[in-house]
Amino acid sequence: MHARVLGSAAGGGFPQWNCACPNCSALRRGDRRLAARTQDSLAVFARDDAAVLCNASPDIARQIEAATVLRPRARRHTPIHAIVLTNGDLDHVLGVFSLREAPPLAIYATASVKTASLARFTGQAVWRDLALDRDVELFGPAGEPTDISVRAFALPGRTPGPEDNVGVRLTCGRTGKRIVYAPRASYATPEIGDDADVLLFDGTFWSNDELVRLGCGTATARDLGHLPIGGREGSLALLATCRARRKIYTHVNNTNPVLRYESREQIEVERAGWDVAEDGLEILP
Amino acid sequence: MHARVLGSAAGGGFPQWNCACPNCSALRRGDRRLAARTQDSLAVFARDDAAVLCNASPDIARQIEAATVLRPRARRHTPIHAIVLTNGDLDHVLGVFSLREAPPLAIYATASVKTASLARFTGQAVWRDLALDRDVELFGPAGEPTDISVRAFALPGRTPGPEDNVGVRLTCGRTGKRIVYAPRASYATPEIGDDADVLLFDGTFWSNDELVRLGCGTATARDLGHLPIGGREGSLALLATCRARRKIYTHVNNTNPVLRYESREQIEVERAGWDVAEDGLEILP
After folding, report:
1. Element holding B171 (H helix, E strand)
2. Inter-chain contact B216–A76, Cβ cutoff 8 Å?
3. What is the pTM of this model?
4. pLDDT tens digits, chain A, 285 residues: what are they?
5. CB A237 within 8 A of CB B98
6. Interface membership of B64 toward A (CB under 8 Å)
7. What ipTM goes with this model?
8. Which residues in chain A touch residue B62, judged by CB atoms under 8 angstroms apart?
9. Nearest by CB to A18, which of B12, B18, B76?
10. Where are the alpha helices (DSSP H) in B134-247?
């Protein structure tokens, strides 16, 4: 089993098209301590000919082109067999429509993610239900095996229902390796990743009032359903005892100071044993 | 007045994520006679602080980032004031949702483009009607002037109604310069561009059976509502007497041989006085 971070930024990407915050401005000036990032998505493989995507961002086409393993191997072809959606946020689902040139893809989502966000888009997809707390084997649209199973678990956040936003645990049918992927989480307990080889967790904001302080908005991290990384109540503290073998922050917002190499925050995260995902990061659990 | 081709490819872009046709494969091998292209969109300016977009492709975020003039000039800001939609094709409208971080944008569309394709998406837009054959002055969401007016005209194609697919003539309120933009057209008569300084016309396919011959599909160009460039009944022949001062093909499909520099088809187009748009092409009418 291996995985590739296709995109590691929160909605809007980094830099964000309408933002001139310190991070976005510095990146545009060519500051080498910062790297551009596309919007959050993860590709997981138990076999190279059967990719499973976790979320499909609006940047999906260039993310595929940047990953040799995801490119077509015949006149019209894709190794992508299934897409698992963790919520109905536009930055996680819009990419489905950029994949419309292919035969239907298999899309796995909870009933509420499908109903709330995607029922309006019909066709071009074979929908399959993702029940909570149950391992589901993933197959391509015509039943092609992927050798990966997924277990969704509730991650209540901004939206009220337990199925509105989920984390997923992906298990390799060959090796038993496990990746837990939770790009939006409003709370954290160590158990989320205790039995995982790799934990990819919500790294959207460093602090709760980050957007407000930078003049980039009026909502706090918690208003938006995101647990900040820093502080006594942040995910770095809450997940300190989590036994995942590798811990990686992803879905990082353009305003987050961890994006800046050698910032105080980046050093703090690294000292605690975490990585910050970059686009193209290859993960071998 | 000036304009910038933000993207010059048809739906799917070039290379296309699931395509290994000769053009896509050669581009991936690094063939220098080919250049990657994002999906069709045009930015038009009468003043640099008030951009008008014609269509919003799924590639909009990176198209904005690639154009210094479209980048934000304050903490949260965009010089984009209005978007004119020529039809409801996903490759022309999905980008609207990638611009959701901003206050509402002004979107100009015919009633049928709005109803057929976008009514399902509410919020985050101030919709304004685009009646056929009438000059409409374009303003930003709060009435900001753009100094550009637009006249939409019917371009019947795959879809039946006269408002389902339109061409637009953009006129500069300062200089009177005119750009005609028609990225999908199933027929052509010289009058379409006779009074234009610049004509941007449907360059999707070279020949009617291009997709079929290359094993990339079963539909012909005409089935898809596109007039091919080549042949006795193609747009190159039909528009030979058009008096537009400059003629440019855009919305070029990844299979089209005009994409290849020094191909027979590219030379034929050039000899006839046409250009093939590339991403980032700056146009001064």
Report:
1. strand B166-172
2. yes
3. 0.85
4. 999 999 999 989 999 999 999 999 999 999 988 999 999 999 999 888 889 999 999 999 999 999 999 999 998 899 999 899 888 888 888 898 888 877 778 888 888 778 766 554 555 567 788 889 999 998 887 888 889 999 999 887 666 778 888 899 999 998 999 999 998 899 999 999 999 999 999 999 999 999 999 888 899 999 999 999 999 999 999 999 999 999 999 999 999 999 999 999 999 999 999 999 999 898 988
5. no
6. yes
7. 0.80
8. 59, 62
9. B76
10. 191-194, 210-213, 235-238
